[in-house]
Amino acid sequence: MNQSLSLPSWMLWLLGLFLLGFVLLAVYSVKRTNGIRRSFFASPYTLWMVLFTIVPCVLIAYYALTDANGAFTLDNFRNFWDSNYSVNQLYTQMGPEYEVLIQRGTVNIGILVYSLWMALLCTIICLVLGYPAAYFMADRNIKIGSILVVLFIIPMWMNFLLRTIAWMTLLEDQGLINTLLKSLGFHSVQLMYNDRAVLLGMVYNFLPFMVFPIYTSLTKMDSKLLEAAQDLGANHLHTFWRVTAPLSLPGVISGITMVFMPSVTTFFIPRILGGGNTMMFGDLIENRFLTEGNWNLGSALSLIMMVLILISLSVLRKADPEGEGGGMI
Hints:
By secondary structure, the protein is mainly alpha-helical. It has helices at about 10-30, 45-65, 75-80, 85-95, 105-140, 145-155, 160-170, 175-185, 195-220, 225-230, 235-265, 270-275, 280-290, 295-320. It folds into three domains: about 5-65; about 75-105, no CATH class; about 105-320, MetI-like fold (Orthogonal Bundle).
């Protein structure tokens, strides 16, 4: 079902009234204070947040809770839970003899579970690889720490899509790795178009988002605490577990959040490195919006994803209430 994007008239009126009210409030604020105060310069950021954050969220909620005709419905969420819901409704209307064909579809749930599993694996691998890297980068006694920081930053200067496509030259059948294996007398291996290739691409692209929050937490840590622990008789291992690890926990929680949620919603990596053999939740949302043109179901899936993001952020808020581990560098 192809559906064109059309906003309801009441929403356009509401948006117009908001812009008018924003302008009037700004003029009133200037007149009341007999000049422009510093807080006035935050107004453009407030307007930007409303237009490009709050309004899109309202639109997503509107389309998720309506059908193609604009009527309120929960069928979009039922379609998420049962991917055969629309077909099953037709079978029900056709009569009792067709009820034997009714079967719940688990495609959407299966893709979400698969995406969560892949995101969990990506997060664990990034944590296992990223914590030691951040630890060495933050160690003042290691002279190559600053070099490691640069090595992690340089790939981020390259476009995300180009970084992913570059892996194809390494992993494809005639790529660099298989060419090297053949030159050494080994058989070529299938490195592309499978879960391992997708996982490799996810880890490569999201690893810096695990490293830098942990690096930030470690660099903020007072070195005198480590010296005090050693003066009290703690060895390096006890110092790490009793001092370093707890103090770096906000960075770890922040890194887990920054890696896990993008991993769940990624869609370009599975398409390129998975070759269409794997589909993640981001691919499913994109397919509903761009391929099927079903804005309502796509919005419902996006709203479900937003709920997962809010849950993740609430966990981050509890573990790091001051936001000490939220910075990149």
